[in-house]
Amino acid sequence: MPIVKDFSTIAGMFLGVTGTFRNTRKESFRRKVNGKYTGISYGELYNQVEGMALALRALGLSHGDRIGLMSENRLEWVVSDFACACSGFVDVPVFPILTPKQVEFIFNNAEVKAVICSNSLQLGKLMKVAGNIPTLEHIIVMQEDAYYKDPTAHEKGVVLYRRMIEEGRKLAAAVPGQLERLVKGISPEDLLTLIYTSGTTGNPKGVMLTHANFTANIVGASGAFPINDQDIVLSYLPLCHAYERTAGYYTCFASGATIAFADSIETVSENLLEVRPTIMTSVPRLFERIKNRVEKATKLEPEKNQKVFRWAIATGIKRVRVEQRKGKAGPILATKNALADRLVFGKIRAKTGGNIRMFVSGGAALPNDIAEFFMAIGLKIIEGYGLTESSPIIAANPFERPKIGTVGKPLPNVEVRIAEDGEIMTRGAHVMRGYYRDPLSTAEAIDPQGWLHTGDIGEIDRDGYLRITDRKKHLFISSGGKNIAPGPIESALSASRLIDQIMLVGDKRPFVTALIVPDFDALKEVAEMQGIPVGNLKEPAARQAFVELEAVELAMEADIKRLQRDLSAFERVRRFEILAEPFTVENGMMTPTLKVKRKVVEEKYGDLIEGMYEGVELD
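Above: the chain's sequence. Below: its structure in token form.
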């Protein structure tokens, strides 16, 4: 449960938690300083937030003004966020990967008066479009090298973050208690933030989330995720996304946990060993990578070790399935599992730091085989569900009784019902106020009774667990009139060791096709077993030539046929194309939370898709 149980605003939560630990040496956050993890105490965090809050006020900003935040995860992001929360400002965080034009649209739509950015890259993007944002009056930059690299920065009104803190600390010393008085002026219904959704088409919409939205979600989430002041959390997902902001940041902070920032998504495996966390929030993609790495490393071991590994995993999965059905494994299976744990599982857990109590998974559906694998080796994954418009958590699996294949039960203070067409709807204090300056979209999302229409299709089982079956807007209707949910089919085919990523196509089409990004290492093994020479697959040209090999296509075709035997005829993939380039955030084909942008992919590979339907008459 939260350390402070009676807060009604994020500002009040901040004061309560820092007040609890302010005179201790306990660390609030950890980040890398000169290559080494270094902590910051709650007392120092309070001082920095107080300094930034008072300095922002001294700029002439008023209650309700919007402040842009352009930064990757770092301590300064947290300080800026809490400073805005305590001063009555509305922060507008954006993903660091956005283009200048995207930044321009969001900051114009939000009518920001100030922007806090992190480094030369972010400052450079902002300066390209600053003249097109008429409301922008102040620019603050965190890294000093970014300030000094631009000789015109001072003339353009750019201010150093450090100097803001220094000036704010002088103001605090001159008149004590100013921050507390500012916090008293914050109402639960005040806007805390505008989070712009990363839609696949059209301009993003600003989701208006209040202090009350987040505090309700924190209280509800803390019941599902048992976090305490002894926990250490590794954070790598973007703080500007509602999922990490609530689950990996606010809820953990409210519980008195210490939060350590990973260097990047690429360094998570190293950071796990450095931080040795007890909790980490993630998306399914990372779990898939960990499982694949473990399995690939095992293949390099002697055959005897590989047999032990396969036996251990089979034993662990059997235990998990028995526990899912009965709640507890029998003594014989428990004894075998204990042996498997000593021989195999403990060594795998050690690679995560050895202290993980739970992973929290969200952002996308967690494949059952990934969940079973982690549960089998003794790493619990708590899968939840939500969306930005619901602050974001709607449901989460109970820590003591997670059910694989579901996203758990609705939080205690959240209402959920299933509409006649199968759409999941939710109502409660966690639901957004609406979309900023967009009443029509707000009316489409929230009905007159206050129900938020999630756009997801699902069902609630007899034990009260929610299962997501697909996105409503991702339902295909074939030219023959068949309703096809691509999500479950993609999950089934992703079980192939040859497939790394897959996206189905089929809406208004006569049959289902697929765009497939292969697992190049697995396909390379297949090719070499057939005596086919394989070049350096790190080169784009070599990858393209490789995916065009007949042997590669035949191997993929055989695996797809095997995995879709149990699907209805109209659900089966009849044609596919193998891609040489993966779907990534950097190339714009995935969202920052690693969801495939279907429309973007369909546009990029439009010719390939049309080629798969050549010679076929549409009904």
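The chain has three domains: 10-186+225-278, 282-354+356-472, 475-612.
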